[in-house]
Amino acid sequence: MRLPKYLIEEIDAFTEEYAVNRTDIITEAVKSYIQEQKEKRFYENFEKGVKELKEILDGKKDKFQLTTLDELIDELEHS
């Protein structure tokens, strides 16, 4: 993996200040980024579902176009 010099310098300063190694910092940063992306995707899908439900309640969309709750949960878990 290649990182810009300024990031390496920041990581090294952090390792000295908190007595951790580069690997630990990079591992935690990647884990945090992945979790953040999963949460972002979840909320985007949730927002889409809420908009779809609002369209149905407002009569703009046919309720038979909805998927079942199980299908929605499956889609959220695998997207």
Classify the beta-strand content into a percent band: under 5%
If helices are DSSP runs of H or I spanning 4 or more residues, what is the number of helices? 3
Question: Domains counted in the coordinates: how many?
Answer: 1
How far from one another are the termini?
27 Å
- What's the helical proportion of residues? over 70%
Helical/strand content category: mainly alpha
Shape by Cα distribution: rod-shaped
Radius of gyration using CA atoms only: 21 Å
Counting DSSP E segments of at least 2 residues, the number of strands comes to 0
Overall mean pLDDT: 85
Looking at how many chains there are and whether they match, the oligomeric state comes to single chain
Low-confidence stretches: none
Largest sheet: none
Order of helices and strands: HHH
Describe the structure.
The protein is mainly alpha-helical and about 80 residues long. The protein has one domain. About 75% of the residues lie in helices and about 0% in strands. It contains three helices and no strands. The protein has helices at about 5-20, 20-55, 70-79. It is rod-shaped and about 60 Å long. About 0% of the residues are buried.
